Amino acid sequence: MGWYYEDFQVGAQWNTPARTITESDVMHFAQLSGDFNPLHTDFEFAKHQRFGKPVAHGMLGLSIVLGLIARLNIFDGTAVALLGIDQWKFSAPIFFGDTVHAMVTIRDMRETRDPRYGILFRSVQLVNQTGTVVQSGELNIMMQRKQEGVSQS
To answer: Locate the MaoC-like domain: which residues (predicted)?
Structure first.
């Protein structure tokens, strides 16, 4: 079971496990999304574009961030809802073969009117193997709160 709202504190920070982005990841994402832009899927086309080779979809990077954060296991079973993706920036390309991880920081916390829930404001950076931040922004989430006198099992 994941952590509850009260288990977090402003300034707490985590680095997720890393994963390597493969051509297969990009092709599967193209199939799921229907986005077959040759910038992502055609090596010959991409050779003549800005980066000289295919790049992963920006939204694939964002999706991978969510999966990497899930691997921390601290939100499992206690996260209620993703409330927003704010000020998300795509700062650098993600290439096939890049290995990325996410850095998550609790920027702020707020109780809600409903005493069962609280909100975490999380600043997140997706970082590649050279230390370049390729994406960043805020992923705000509603969390369960501990309930006095109620079993959490």
So the answer is: 10-116
For residues 4 and 117, give the distance between their C-alpha atoms in angstroms, rounded to a whole number. 9
CATH number of 5-144: 3.10.129.10
DSSP one-letter string for 52-107: SS-B--HHHHHHHHHHHHHTT-SSTTTEEEEEEEEEEEE-S--BTT-EEEEEEEEE
Go through 15-38 and write b for each residue having 16 or more CB atoms within 10 A of its CB, e for each that does not: ebeebebeeebbeebbeeeeeeee
Output the pTM of the full model: 0.92
Cα–Cα distance between 75 and 80 in angstroms, integer? 9
pLDDT bucket at 152, cuts 50 / 70 / 90: low
Tokens of 59: 């939204």
Q: Chain-wide mean pLDDT for the chain?
A: 95
Residues present in the chain in total: 153
DSSP-assigned letter for residue 116: T
Beta bridge pairs of residue 138: 86, 123
Mean pLDDT along residues 25-36: 98
